[in-house]
Amino acid sequence: MAGKPAKKPSRIQIRNRRRIMDAALEVFSQHGYRGATLDQIADAAGMSKPNLIYYFDGKEAIHVALLNALMEEWLAPLAELDESGEPLDEILTYVRRKMDMSRRYPRESRLFANEIIQGAPRIGPHLQSGLKPLFDEKCQLIRRWIEEGRLPPTDPQQLIFTIWAITQHYADFEAQVRVLIADEEAGWDAANAHVESVFRTLLASPGTLG
Question: What is the 3-class SS of the chain, one letter each residue?
Fold first, then answer.
């Protein structure tokens, strides 16, 4: 006989899980995985440690849940590169979305960066199963655009790496950026304009320069 279907979590349970994950995001982004403790997460969530463990088995379970949610969010802009679109417009739209994410989700970006710096011990399988196929697919798309003469010759892999390096700098080094650029709004306007100009120039056809 088939077992009973899993009971759906209540609204309170859903709310508490979100509360724990938001608190954990703050703690992990500040202290890294190794420096973070369940006590710190429980304090940040405003609940007892036993209550927290009712929802998650331990620190690693919370960390993995955050990384899984982050991977889905982080891959969405790359997945939306559209082969039917104008290549330069598609890539610049991707750059803009990455800049927007760096502004809105600096903690999430630092969480991901800390995991990668440690050798991706918890998210490694997801890099292989999720990121790698998508990365290869979009590199092939960019390569095809180049072969069709719709983009100037460039290395698709290095292009994507450069987009990541430049756009995520504003999230991963947020504290430094805040010190160096006092006017946040003006700073972001300048950053967006400059970064778009960098990639527009890089990907311009030779005849459009000058």
Answer: CCCCCCCCCCHHHHHHHHHHHHHHHHHHHHHHHHHCCHHHHHHHHCCCHHHHHHHCCCHHHHHHHHHHHHHHHHHHHHHCCCCCCCHHHHHHHHHHHHHHHHHHCHHHHHHHHHHHHCCCCCCHHHHHHHHHHHHHHHHHHHHHHHHCCCCCCCCHHHHHHHHHHHHHHHHHCHHHHHHHCCCHHHHHHHHHHHHHHHHHHHCCCHHHCC
| Residue 205 confidence (pLDDT) | 67
The predicted structure's pLDDT at residue 27: 93
Task: Kindly indicate the confidence band of residue 122, based on its pLDDT and cuts at 50, 70 and 90.
Answer: confident
The CATH number of the domain covering residues in 64-205: 1.10.357.10
CATH code of 10-56, in short, is 1.10.10.60
